[in-house]
Amino acid sequence: MRALVSTMNFSVALRHHAMSIRAAIFDVDGVLTDGTLYISEAGETLKAFHALDGHGLKLLAQGGITPIVITGRDSPAVRRRLKDLGVTQAVFGAHDKLAAAEPIRTALGLRWDQIAVMGDDWPDLPLLARAGLAVAPANAHAEVKAVAHHVSALRGGEGAARECCDLLLWATGHYERLLHSHLQTLDTTSDGART
């Protein structure tokens, strides 16, 4: 079996925070995007998403960790992206993100210490302060970085969410299994020879 390229250079303390996580809440603007809003004359908002982050959310679901999106804005672009990724737990236009999260948390039967949160600004602080694992992208506001267990070296919309997903999958023991599953189709051709 192929050896892992990544050694997952996260600390033991960080792994301790992440190993019991069963769901992860992500903000959109500044986390799944770089935070830039493109608004046309017609009022349509355009957003750019990173493919690595999207695949990370899919991998979380495959690893048994429920991806959740709670965002203060609502836009067709975000709804389309989450639908394409198969994210079914989402709240749009949430002015009080904690109030928006509580029904989902209750429905999933989880405690706050079983939930990770990735946010970048003050509206995310109530969630981050309760989370079992609080994560911030490199471009997060200083107050968010101050409460985070982990601050990514990557910016929002540039792979920071994927790093969070990788951390969760590694800490919960799913990373290697999912990687090897993806590699199985590359390891052999139809006649069994190495490719």
Folded structure, characterized:
By secondary structure, this protein is of the alpha/beta class. It has a single domain, classed as 3-Layer(aba) Sandwich (Rossmann fold), CATH 3.40.50.1000. The protein is 40% helix and 13% strand. The chain contains 8 helices and 8 strands. It has helices at 12-18, 51-62, 76-85, 97-108, 125-130, 142-147, 160-171, 175-187, and strands at 23-26, 38-39, 45-46, 66-70, 89-91, 115-118, 133-136, 150-151. The strands form 2 sheets. It has a 6-stranded parallel beta sheet with strand order 5-4-1-6-7-8, with helices on both faces. A two-stranded antiparallel sheet has the order 2-3.
Q: What would a concise description of this structure say?
A:
Helices cover 40% and strands 13% of the residues. Helix 2 (51-62) runs parallel beside helix 7 (160-171). The protein has helices spanning 12-18, 51-62, 76-85, 97-108, 125-130, 142-147, 160-171, 175-187, and strands at residues 23-26, 38-39, 45-46, 66-70, 89-91, 115-118, 133-136, 150-151.
